[in-house]
Amino acid sequence: MKTDWINIALASDDNYAQHVSVVMASVLLNTKHRNRIRFFLLSDTIDNNKIMLLQETVSSLGAKLVIININNCEFNNVYLSGHVSKAAYFRLKLADILPFDVHKIIYLDVDLLVFEDIVEVWETNIYNKPIAAVPDYGIMASARLMKQKATVIGFGEEDIYFNSGVLIIDVDQWREKAFAQQVLNLVETTQLPHHDQDALNKVFINNWYALPLKWNVIPPVFCLFTKILFSIKFRQAAIIAKKNPAIFHYAGRYKPWEFGKKNGFNDKYYDYLRETSFKDVKMPKPSKNMRGKSLLRQTLRIKLADIWCKIFG
């Protein structure tokens, strides 16, 4: 009997393979439909030993993993900066490289954790939109950044900007309308501040479906940045999402694997890591540039946000 697959895509180079396993474990340990989960990993020269560990992790948890090797030479002209690697752009080619039996797919960044059943996202009606995503309050609550988006991608005052770390992609529409090439044309010809996320927002302006905020809770939300906390427009939804995150997304500079286990910040990352075949790797894994990063500062931000939740919640 043909399996009714729930398709999920991730993209990684060799450095992030361990974190892919953690994301996949978090998905599988929070769903009742493990045998329907089919992961597609877009691989940028991931070492064969790590591929074996990824396969072991997924099979031990009852799901399927398909590895698709990507020729990263196709992305030589994209704009790279900071922690953004070529692998970040691989998702743009999903419609072109996935098997033809894949008509819809969930894309997940590899610096996040899933806490609720991903099937809820899979079954979301996106009303024939080519893409679904979560509004990015970190951008939208900033007058400076929204002014930037008006300049670089033509946003108007009422336009909504989304974060591209969690996406539902209508693969059929992407194939039919060649959306991937439209986005790639932008990232290859323009140095956009937020890379392909800006390009996606420009291509799909007013043509995407907004998922609930809980499905991509980013640092400005879980730390309740003041621009969100003191905004009547954004505060209440942010507090609700912070209290009950379905996906916790470590977007930005503070990655959970860079520090030792700390409750309230990255303890769940370490919990899921123990459920993978990477559980014996040496931890933590600090990045080369730790300048300005303080675990104490970050945990204090989160604790202060918890206090604000009690006051305003």
Walk me through this protein's architecture.
With 313 residues, the protein is of the alpha/beta class. The chain has one domain: Spore Coat Polysaccharide Biosynthesis Protein SpsA, Chain A (Alpha-Beta Complex), CATH 3.90.550. It has 14 helices and 9 strands. The protein has a 7-stranded mixed β-sheet with strand order 3-2-1-4-7-6-8, sandwiched between helices. Strands 5-9 form a two-stranded antiparallel sheet. Strand 2, helix 2 and strand 3 form a beta-alpha-beta unit. It is globular and about 50 Å long. The model has no long low-confidence stretch (mean pLDDT 94).
Structural class: alpha/beta
CATH architect. name: Alpha-Beta Complex
Query: How far is it from the N-terminal to the C-terminal residue, by CA?
Result: 49 Å
Q: What radius of gyration results from the CA coordinates?
A: 19 Å
Main sheet: strand order: 3-2-1-4-7-6-8
Helical content stands at 25-40%
CATH superfamily: Spore Coat Polysaccharide Biosynthesis Protein SpsA, Chain A
SSE sequence, one letter per element:
EHEHEHEEHEHHEHHHEHHHEHH
Mean pLDDT, all residues? 94
Largest sheet: 7 strands, mixed
CATH class: Alpha Beta
Domain count: the total is 1
Proportion of beta-strand residues: 15-25%
| SS summary, helix count | 14
CATH topology: Spore Coat Polysaccharide Biosynthesis Protein SpsA, Chain A
Shape: globular
**Overall strand count:** 9
Low-confidence stretches: none
